[in-house]
What we know:
single chain, alpha/beta, Rossmann fold, 2 domains, five-stranded parallel β-sheet, 22 helices, about 35% helix
Amino acid sequence: MLVKVLAAAIQGINATLVTIEVNALRGIKFYLVGLPDNAVKESQQRINSALNHNGLRFPSKQIIVNMAPADIKKEGSAYDLPIAIGILAADEVVNTEKLEHYLIMGELGLDGKLMPIKGALPITLKAKELGYKGIILPEGNAAEAAVVNDIEILGAGDLMQVIKFLNGEEEIIPFGIDIEKDFYSKQSNFPFDFSEVRGQENVKRAFEVAAAGGHNLIMVGPPGSGKSMMAKRLPSILPPLTLQESLETTKIHSVSGMMPDRTSLITQRPFRSPHHTISSVALCGGGANPKPGEISLAHNGVLFLDELPEFSRDVLEVMRQPLEDRKICVARASYKVEYPAGVMFVASMNPCPCGYYNHPTKACTCSPGQVQRYLNKISGPLLDRIDLQIEIVPVPFEKISETAPGEPSAAIRERVIAARKIQEERFRNEEGIYCNAQMTPKLITKYAVLDEVSLSMLKNAMSRLNLSARAYDRILKVARTIADLDNSENIQPQHIAEAIGYRNLDRENWGT
Length: 512
């Protein structure tokens, strides 16, 4: 008897339909075809054990399982459940009437328990797109899949529950959640707050400007000056995720297998801080079984690289194109996938190998050549994509010992949100542009117009500070954001002056 069970395969961060065709014939062999990987091939042993544990038997027939389309590689253990159901249906143990209405995915334990799978959200979105009545998957993925409306989400605990449902012996109550309540109730719960930071008011201001305009930022300062501490608090002042952004972020974490069990949505902007030993593949994505990299896991959030010069040069150069295009295309001989990479890039570094160049109290032991070589590890093209460059000095004891809390993140976040609303209105007719950091030269000319005083100030700064030509557009973008924070329609001289101050670490002046 030939039966078909509906399943799905993950490609990039989207799903594509896979039809599990099972034919039971006279004989004793088992064939699994359709480009399965080793994890899929091992499903026979898991299915056999699960059936025996629940009082069923593997058919004493020749079983041919085809996973169509056969030219797409099938990966992972999530095909255990649809293959098991197909085998039982071909052996006439399971009724086939409901199979055409439901997409089925799940990993089987040896006792028949269903364990969570990767990519439940994009798979459910595909099931809805194709017009199926519902999806049957493990209980642990039900909350994640329930984000999709107008489709039945049937979370099952074990194989027998699925069999009884398909045979009409037991009902599975569709899982449902209040998406808006679940989404908005968790948006303001942050483990770190800027009220805990003592001193560093100029750096806090730079973080506020960066968050308001979506600008990339680099901090240069000695050990213990608070670079990592403040970077970890950046998500607490960023605008909350929209529901669409949350769905995008959740899809990426879902296909990576990084969704917490029984979690429906990623409700806060991601903060990813990989170690400096990371490989270029781990950062950009790909591999034998392609998965999103750190730069995609940080999509709609923050990618923080601590001790930037310690990263491999190849790893750093990989980021140049994604930071500009906000997406990354991974092409290999056997596949080509595209992952989103709309991140806010934040980095920190010491000013020299010993860490104490320009320190107010400790002497630097590095020669000028050592300092320059250390700073030269950061290429000009990468630095060109960083709008704000901040020098940090250690906080004096008087500030550290203060007991009064600083300004809380919530107050800073309100100003950031107000500035972002101005930008949303400004760019509402510009496709793909959402904040000032994304402005093209054409948009800079249109929205960052300077008066004579401001233009003269910028000209003098470019000449006096020996700023590079690439700093010009960055200064105008940052000045436009500062003006937005002041709710000013036009860029004023004080806005330009502050923006110039954030270029005092421009590469041509470093280490001199």
